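In this notation, each integer encodes one residue's backbone shape. One such record reads:

___
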Amino acid sequence: MALDGSTFAQTVYADDVVASNAAMGAMVREMGWPPQSVQAFRDQARERLAALAPGGVLPRSPLAREITVPLPAGSMSARVFDAPTPTGLYLHVHGGGWTVGAADEQDSYLEDLVRGTEDPLLDDSLFLYARLLAARSPAQIQVVPGAGHSFNLMPLSVSGPANEVVYGFLAAALAA
């Protein structure tokens, strides 16, 4: 996808995207800032995220398993998804600012490589995309007008088509 001014010039967005952005903004305002503590903020954010999930529970993939990776100064946990016939490796690193977000909150959407124009982290995504291209790594980015960060985790009209592009890219990259 080529990026140009028209990507960011759109001012009319899908109604469900606008409503989702407003709900997320209201949620953040309602949570208050600054938080009482980092742990309190993590807990509150996870509760709010779970409330958006079907049945109020974050779906966890039965294909995932937890491992402990030894490091020079300790260890860290990681989630591993084993494919029946592995054709490559996909490493998803998302720290959530090392404050909000956890590996198991994205089980259904680990292919989350898409971003929206209302994403406060869009500049980081564009920078990473450019760095991947400079390293001659296969890379593709989608910028979805009006959509916010992690929009493709939500049941929005723009999520399905965006995720299909991601799945296609990953399938082609892993088959190469």
Summary: Helices lie at 5-9, 15-31, 38-52, 122-134, 159-175. The CA atoms of residues 114 and 162 lie 7 Å apart. Residues 111-176 form one domain.
